[in-house]
Specification:
With 205 residues, the protein is of the alpha/beta class. It has 8 helices and 5 strands. It has a single domain, classed as 2-Layer Sandwich (Nucleotidyltransferase, domain 5), CATH 3.30.420.10. The C terminus is likely disordered.
Amino acid sequence: MIPAALGFRAHSGWTALVAVSLEKDGPRVLLRQRPHLVETFTYEFRQPYHTAESKPLEKAREFVSRMESEAKCLAEEAIRSVQADLRKQGYRLTSFGLLRGLGKPLPSLDKILSSHALIHAADGELFREGLIHGGRRCRLAAFTIPERDLLPVASKTLRTKEADLIARVAALGKPLGAPWSQDEKFAVLAAWLALVSRRGTSGPR
């Protein structure tokens, strides 16, 4: 079967998901989706730490824990569904690429809830951690990278100028139509890097 990888760019309560394979050292988009990572797609659940801010600490802890479990379950369901669809087409998911924040460890819940900046960071991290959990449950190798490092690392690894990479990834979306925003473009690059890192090779000069 042909190896393939998923790329994720997560948001509050949902993620851009793109599946990619490599042909002649270039990416081919197999599918793209925007699965939800919360059962009820409202602000209350999409921003769990913002919601928890107004609750007593123990209630806040219970709510955040419930949303963590929900995100993990929905992420795993989405990935398993994609795995099954691609398997029918002759592709085997081997890995996933995920864009991360700055990667600083978060403090305890009470300290998070006392800082608006940390609340924002924790909301994003909750859904990214859900995707990592889902990918590992599906036996996919994880490739994570801070979003700010994506373009320079991709340029170096794939031996292609940043501007050329951006143009190439943008062109992949033309036959697919909308949505093909920065979410999908960055997800493609993350998946591409995940595949290359598994093969131990670099891209075209």
